[in-house]
Amino acid sequence: MGAKLSPAARREQNWGYIMVAPTIIGLVVLNLWPFVQTIWTSFCEHLGFGNYEFIGLRNYIEMFQTPEVWRATWNTVLFCILTVPIGLFLSLLVAMLLNAKIKGKGVFRTIFFLPMVCAPAAVTMVWRWIFNADYGILNQILGTKINWITTPGWVMVACAIVAIWSNIGYDAILLLAGLQNISKSYYEAASIDGASKVTQFFKITLPMVSPTLFVVMIMRLMSSVKVYDLIYMMVEDTNPALTSVQSLMYLFYRETFVAGSRGMGSAIVVWTVAIIGVITLFQFWGQKKWVNYDV
């Protein structure tokens, strides 16, 4: 048995519980309990007015037999493939540029971070104008007539471009914090030994910033799997290219709030959480091979 706490230590412990209580209560009420309800609802059929009937695995059987669900799953995976690697590369590049000795670094940091504080609806309207097939600035620059938003082969690319652009600043700021924690003595010693800038990047910068890069990668993957608002605002319901970009979360919205099938919508959410869980487990397994926690 542990040593008995003194009255002062017990009071301090109680104050600790009181201070963390709002966060724990909020986590349980706003996150944990709704998720438990979602799991239960996925095994039920919504009868209206808050009434549900337990139907077992019927929603899951129907879900996995629906081609639209598998198409949305592939769209979600493809969106992650298009946005995460390129976004991380560009964010790291921007972070390294912001970490360099240049004038006005604070101004550039603000510029790159601005997309995160802009209203998503305003950002979407600007990009819809940029992607416009007739008078969009992108087609004017490229000298093409591509229907970026209405062509099935290009709509996913267009949404990926907007997602990467929107998140580069936030990810770059996080990576910049990791870069600034690297001691300059490592680079000074490497320069004395005659190591080039490229060698210093792969032998010093990348290993030392890998913990921060790992955290950013997890955040970006989870965000990409849960993408909904960007697609909702970029692609209209009547757009023939919707099926080529519809994500699992967008399909959840349609099933739950348009079709009124809350049981099916909940099953889609559970399926999405399962995918996130598998990806996260794979990431934590793979981090042992490339993430360096040694100081």
Structural class: mainly alpha
Which CATH class of the largest domain is shown? Mainly Alpha
Our count of domains comes out at 2
The quaternary state of the protein chains shown equals: single chain
Structural overview:
With 295 residues, this protein is mainly alpha-helical. The chain has two domains: 52 residues; 227 residues, MetI-like (MetI-like fold). It is built from twelve helices and two strands, in the order αββααααααααααα. The protein has a two-stranded antiparallel ribbon. Helix 1 crosses helix 12, helix 3 packs antiparallel against helix 9 and helix 4 crosses helix 7. The model has no long low-confidence stretch (mean pLDDT 90).
Q: What is this entry, summarized?
A:
With about 300 residues, this protein is mostly helical.
Topology:
Elements lengths: L6 H35 L2 E5 L2 E4 L3 H7 L2 H33 L5 H13 L2 H11 L6 H6 L9 H29 L3 H9 L4 H29 L3 H6 L13 H11 L3 H29 L5
Antiparallel strand pairs: 1-2
Helix pairs in contact: 1-12, 2-12, 3-7, 3-9, 4-7, 7-9, 9-12, 11-12
State the main characteristics:
295 residues, mainly alpha, MetI-like fold, 2 domains, 12 helices, 2 strands, 3% strand, globular
